[in-house]
Specification:
The chain is mainly alpha-helical. It contains one helix and no strands. It has one helix at about 5-29.
Length: about 30
């Protein structure tokens, strides 16, 4: 099982990846 902190960290990393992905797409466009 995962702790709340582990889940929160995973969600944060996923969110950052999405933000970076959107920024990269914006620069390429």
């Amino acid at each position: 099982t995962k702790t709340i902190d582990e889940i929160d960290t995973e969600l944060t990393l996923t969110g950052l990846q999405l933000i970076y992905g959107l920024n990269c797409q914006g620069k390429d466009a």
